[in-house]
Design goal:
alpha/beta, 512 residues, 6-stranded antiparallel beta sheet, Beta-Lactamase, 16 strands, 23% strand, 19 helices, single chain, globular, 38% helix, 7-stranded mixed beta sheet
């Protein structure tokens, strides 16, 4: 067994810089340095993997003081044409919404002028050129830009989807061909059409990697596997659905570094209200919304903000989507009857401070969540409802008494996601946004905090003292953050009256 010695934080190099700039705390840095003694990895990589530091913040810190402690890795996708990459010997290492990192053997001034049309509004930063990476990188980008053409291209399909920030890949067979679609910012987009023989190969490879039954095509199946991308693991969850034309395959991409795990970056208007409530000593805190509304992302960001070293945090999910270091995460396993209620009972015997329920689905889970809150713990959970009053009604329908609701409910956050206008093209469509006109997503939300039982009782009767989710979405439209079309897509015809009012006010303002 290695000798145990007191942990001390060096204030030199990258570690000291991160500490001095307030990007990490001393206990977090101590933990990362302790892990470094075991793994030998760069401290920056450890902090990013454990969710204490965003990768973009690490790159900025490295650039600020030339602290780079690893060789730049080639990216898997880029909008820069392959002909340009070859002509100027360019390797793209990292691309974010605001920055492009690349290396080259040609004059940097010339290269900057050549690539800027393909990354409008982004800062171009140059890093070290690694000769051995050039040919593999060029081959990867060539196949990515020319579509799926061979059996090897399943790897490139996955890397392209991850590189573009897709949340899902849909592989949909049709009578004479197969369509491959990416879900980008919540909306599916057709990327390729491939012949059926290549479809069969792709499906077989995916099912094999996901440990699924290759011969079974009549029943739905689920599986998972991982891919490596720029030094990190990306989790892929696979589901198949038998259809009359063949198996539909949907791959959910769970890339922890793409989910903006910082509460202040999610666009939640009630984030301070939420933050204050989850830092209380006990009580029930709910995140609500439909499927795909970002509930898990909000929970994930909340956990990453907590003192994960000083507090014992346990979660039960179905399944665990994003790993959060220094927490106890448990997967539901129906095969051995490991469900939410049984697991929370186990948590209660494991000296917890915070308990997280991936979803409150039934009466037993709801009651044990309230019981955990009643015994002095903060309980975070998600619920499929569309409003604060709907959340209260749902808990009552699940058998929670009005007395328990009044005493244990602390806060309810309800959210949905809206696409935001691309800052580079202002909605016209460009290479930066893949011609979508939208560059990211933000949360429209409503958040109600309850200081006493009387406020819970008033909310249960329909009395609202906070801006509604729809009001928040309209405010984001009015500010120019999103479009009328996006408001209609999310809220349907209910958005028409609000859009008309905003247009009329803008018209009168223009005449004035």
């Amino acid at each position: 067994m290695p000798e145990l010695s007191p942990l001390t934080t060096s204030r030199t190099g990258l570690a000291g810089y991160l500490l001095d700039q307030g990007l990490v705390s001393k206990p977090v840095l101590d933990a990362a340095l302790a892990e470094q003694r075991v793994t030998g990895e760069p401290v920056g990589a450890i902090l990013v993997r454990n969710g204490f530091l965003a990768r973009i913040d690490l790159h900025r810190a490295e650039a600020a003081e030339d602290f780079a402690d690893s060789i730049p890795e080639a990216a898997g996708a880029t909008a820069i044409p392959v002909e340009l990459l070859e002509r100027y010997s360019i390797i793209v290492s990292q691309e974010t919404a605001t920055e492009l990192q690349l290396s080259t053997l040609v004059d940097e001034v010339v290269v900057r002028a050549a690539v800027e049309p393909y990354c409008p509004g982004k800062t171009v930063r140059f890093v070290s050129f690694v000769p051995d990476q050039f040919e593999p990188f060029l081959d990867t980008i060539t196949r990515e830009q020319r579509g799926l053409t061979s059996r090897k291209d399943i790897d490139q399909l996955l890397l392209t989807a991850i590189g573009q920030g897709a949340s899902d890949i849909h592989i949909v067979p049709r009578p004479v061909s197969c369509s491959v679609l990416f879900r980008l910012l919540g909306v599916r987009r057709l990327m390729y059409d491939v012949p059926l023989d290549l479809y069969q190969t792709i499906v077989a490879q995916i099912k094999d990697r996901a440990s699924m039954d290759l011969a079974e095509r009549r029943l739905p199946q689920d599986g998972r596997f991982e891919v490596k991308l720029q030094g990190r693991s990306v989790d892929l969850r696979v589901a198949t659905v038998p259809s009359i034309d063949g198996e539909i395959v949907v791959i959910r991409i769970l890339d922890a570094e793409q989910v903006a795990p910082v509460l202040d970056r999610l666009g939640l208007s009630g984030v301070e209200t939420w933050r204050d409530a989850v830092n209380l000593q006990n009580g029930l805190c709910l995140v609500c919304g439909p499927t795909g509304s970002g509930k898990t992302t909000t929970l994930n960001a909340t956990l990453r903000e907590m003192d994960r070293l000083g507090k014992a945090i346990y979660s039960i999910e179905d399944p665990v989507e994003y790993r959060v270091s220094y927490t106890g995460q448990v997967n539901v396993n129906s095969a051995i009857k490991l469900d939410f209620a049984q697991t929370v009972r186990a948590f209660m015997r494991a000296d917890p401070d915070v308990i997280v329920l991936g979803e409150i689905r039934d009466e037993e889970t709801a009651k044990i969540a309230v019981r955990a809150a009643d015994t002095g713990h903060i309980v975070l959970a998600t619920l499929h409802t569309g409003s604060v009053t709907g959340a209260i009604d749902r808990l009552r329908n699940l058998g929670i008494s009005p007395f328990d609701l009044r005493n244990q409910l602390r806060v309810v956050m309800v959210q949905t996601l809206l696409r935001t206008i691309c800052p580079s093209c202002l909605g016209a469509g460009c290479t930066a946004c893949h011609d979508l006109g939208y560059g990211a997503r933000t949360a429209a939300s409503e958040c109600a905090v309850f200081r006493d039982g009387a406020e819970v009782a008033a909310a249960a009767k329909g009395q609202r003292s906070w801006p509604s989710l729809f009001d928040d979405a309209v405010a984001k439209y009015r500010s120019g953050l999103t479009t009328a079309a996006e408001l209609r897509r999310v809220f349907g015809s209910a958005a028409d009256a609000a859009i008309g009012t905003v247009s009329a006010l803008a018209s009168r303002k223009g005449r004035a």
